[in-house]
Write a structure and sequence with these properties.
Elements: H1 24-31, H2 35-38, H3 54-79, H4 89-102, H5 108-132, H6 136-158, H7 180-188, H8 194-234, H9 240-251
Helix pairs in contact: 3-8, 4-5, 5-6, 5-7, 6-8
Length: 252
């Protein structure tokens, strides 16, 4: 064999070089790879944006689409004249009619008012229940629905004197004995303010819907940030693995 350092020929049994005096065993020990070098390198930490698991991403995308849809719907409501028909009118009407029954023990005035009042209260009750469970996004969506119910009631209020709104039976208020808000405003002496009150209810509903969308957006962004932070903190530190390996070596 030849000396790894100077290239001088040496016998296979030689332990050191006759020319340079290097000890072969020491030279091989220094050039041999260490156990740290042979250890499998740890993968690089993924970026924070990749820390969301698949379920979190699905929920985030679904909620983001919901917010976008509500924003578009609100914009269309804002551009439409008061009294424009909506697909939500019939579901709202179910709670409206139920409100008349629920408030009937409290006299005629509350029985009549109970229809409009209950269809506005149902989304708020649901929002409160969801908020107690920690579902702020669901509460924001229900708050949006409550605002939309004000839009649903607004033309009813504004029609108190004209009585041209088509009612549940297919006839207008003028063709029957008036309707709820004609009776309510006449009882209060506010009949001449019907259009102003209807417009105020419409604007209040729009403001409530916009505020609910802002709340849902803020909740969505905060929830995503919390999920990223939680996932990042749950990952094992890459610096801890070499230390644990070193400790095992010292204990061997």
């Amino acid at each position: 064999m030849s000396c790894p350092k100077c290239g001088h020929s040496a016998s296979p049994e030689a332990t050191e070089c006759d020319r340079c005096g290097v000890v072969f065993a020491k030279l091989h020990a220094r050039s041999a790879p260490s156990r740290d070098d042979l250890a499998t390198p740890l993968p690089a930490d993924p970026p924070a944006s990749a820390s969301l698991n698949r379920q979190d991403r699905i929920v985030f995308v679904a909620r983001a689409l919901t917010v976008a849809g509500l924003a578009l719907w609100t914009w269309r409501f804002a551009r439409a004249p008061i009294g424009t028909a909506s697909v939500l009118h019939l579901p709202n009407l179910v709670f409206h009619e139920a409100g008349h029954v629920l408030f009937s023990p409290f006299g005629r005035f509350m029985t009549v008012l109970g229809g409009s009042l209950f269809q506005f209260l149902v989304p708020l009750i649901l929002a409160g229940a969801l908020l107690r469970q920690g579902d702020r996004f669901g509460a924001a969506v229900c708050a949006w629905w409550a605002g939309q119910n004000l839009l649903d009631v607004a033309p009813y209020i504004a029609d108190a004197r004209a009585l041209q709104l088509v009612l549940l039976g297919g006839r207008t208020g003028a063709e029957v004995e008036g309707h709820d808000w004609e009776y309510l405003l006449a009882t209060l002496g506010w009949l001449r303010f019907d259009r102003a009150l209807g417009a105020a209810a419409y604007r209040s509903g729009l403001a409530m819907m916009i505020a609910a969308i802002a709340w849902a957006t803020t909740t969505l962004r905060a929830g995503r940030k919390e999920s990223q932070t939680s996932a990042f903190n749950s990952r094992p530190s890459s610096a801890s693995a070499p230390r644990a390996l070193s400790c095992r070596r010292r204990g061997e």
